[in-house]
TrEMBL record:
It comes from the Bacteria. Belongs to the glycosyl hydrolase 1 family. It comes from Deinococcus rubellus. Transmembrane segments: none annotated. Pfam families: Glyco_hydro_1 (PF00232). It is an enzyme of class 3 (hydrolase). This is Beta-glucosidase.
Length: 441
């Protein structure tokens, strides 16, 4: 099995700065299952999955990877990979089944077992507060379009901070606010599945506000954990010079709309003007809250966008099972640009990975050379950014194991570890072994 081209030396830890963190990532709804156990309330994804046609393969999160019931086994699995860190999310509806009020002890106890189990195994816990599973009861009041949701989120953040904050290495407030707003309220592909741009921009604003309010609550607890947030970012490249203006808009809507409030305390003027009357209500003082200093920025990177009025595709593009172009240079370009344009805290690549239609052969092996190539080339892009002066402290492969890929259900496999959904058996793919060799090097 040749995992690296023969003329390039395989990556080892020696290539990376000392203390560079190698981790794997998941999120609650995508792996836990047990959606109706131990007092968990409905989330917007439970509701969304019940609506016909929303999920390509008609599945839901009820069982998923049964992680809720296989916690110890999965912790052992993570440990077997030799990684330093594990990024996971807490399901808000396990903690506050209707989004407000007293904490549900059974929910807290589950995540406490998780972080204690990581610590016993010498693995750093990187906790994300919100990876899209909003309590349905809050959606019934408008979800993120309701400003009050930001305040509820801050209260939930305090509950988690108080109980788990001293046991984790980092806390990220949000995962990918672009997805939780635009993809969910404007494009309608994610829960709650709306098609309403003003609502989406209002949701985005309240997510950012919720982030800032949660930062205030967490800071007040004086935790040793690093505090930050996670954005999904990707550069937009114009196919021709004539596509330059459109690429600037794409970049502004996807990247700057979230970066500028957090790091500059303002929305990008060009994009704000372009949105016309669709822009959100910003109250006095909002940006002061939103621009709270961060200890780290999490960057999720999968692909670039290629902007072409004629619909032209990039020459020679190779794509994953998601149809996403494999473009590692986009990650180094992105990081170098972020470093040039913003004053940033240390960066972690909190997600990066690829879906391929993996199958288990008769011997039980899963050969996924494309994923190995994807991971390796993107890790090299991180190294290139580092050489250009960008302070990247760690990398989390998405994902620990195959899981519920949102609107695609179980049809897209992003795991380093293969999951047989019939038996719930977990098997290391070649990519997991490759990553393990790197992590243990
Ligand atoms: C990201 C999500 C993550 C996963 C990957 C493929 O946008 O944060 O949950 O679905 O995409």
């Amino acid at each position: 099995m040749t995992l690296t081209s023969p003329d390039i030396k395989p990556l080892t830890r020696q290539n990376f700065p000392p203390n560079f963190v190698f981790g794997v990532a998941t999120s609650a709804f995508q792996i836990e299952g047990a959606t109706h156990e131990d007092g968990r309330g409905d989330s917007i994804w439970d509701t969304f999955c019940r609506e016909p046609g929303r999920i390509r393969d008609g599945t839901n999160g009820d069982v998923a990877c049964e992680h809720y019931h296989r916690l110890e086994q999965d912790l052992d699995l993570i440990q077997s990979l030799g990684v330093d860190a594990y990024r996971f999310s807490v399901a808000w509806p396990r903690i506050q089944p209707s989004g407000t009020g007293a904490a549900n002890e059974a929910g807290l106890a589950f995540y406490e077992r998780l972080v204690d189990g990581l610590s016993q195994r010498g693995i750093a816990a990187h906790l994300t507060l919100y990876h899209w599973d909003l309590p349905q009861a809050l959606q019934d009041q408008g979800g993120w379009t309701n400003r009050q949701t930001a305040h509820h989120f801050a209260e939930y953040a305090r509950i988690i901070g108080e109980r788990l904050g001293h046991k984790v290495r980092s806390i990220a407030t949000l995962n990918e606010p672009w997805c939780a707003s635009i993809l969910s309220y404007e494009i309608g592909e994610h829960a709650p599945g709306w098609h309403d741009r003003p609502a989406a921009l209002s949701a985005a604003h309240h997510l950012l506000l919720g982030h800032g309010l949660a930062m205030q609550e967490l800071r007040a607890l004086k935790l040793s954990a690093d505090l930050g947030t996670v954005l999904n970012l990707g550069p937009a490249y114009p196919a021709t010079p004539a596509d330059g203006a459109a690429a600037a808009v794409a970049d502004g809507r996807f990247n700057r709309w979230f970066l500028d409030p957090v790091f500059r305390g303002e929305y990008p003027r060009d994009i704000w003007d372009g949105y016309g009357t669709d822009v959100p209500v910003v109250e006095a003082g909002d940006f002061e809250i939103i621009r709270a200093p961060l200890d780290f920025l999490g960057v999720n990177y999968y692909t670039r966008s290629y902007i072409s009025a004629s619909g032209e595709q990039p020459a020679g593009a190779v794509t994953t099972d998601m149809g996403w172009e494999v473009f590692p240079q986009g990650l180094s370009d992105l990081l170098i640009r972020l470093h040039a344009d913003y004053t940033l805290p240390p960066i972690f690549i909190t997600e990066n990975g690829a879906a391929y239609p993996d199958t288990q052969n008769a011997e039980g092996d899963i050969h996924d050379p494309e994923r190995v190539k994807y991971l390796e080339s993107h890790l090299r892009a991180v190294l290139a950014a580092g050489e250009a002066g960008v302070d990247v402290r760690g990398y989390f492969g998405w994902s620990l194991m195959d899981n519920f890929e949102w609107a695609y259900g179980y049809s897209k496999r992003f795991g380093l570890v293969y999951v047989d959904y019939e038996t719930q058996e977990r098997t290391l793919k070649d990519s997991a072994r490759w990553y393990q060799a790197l992590a243990k090097s």
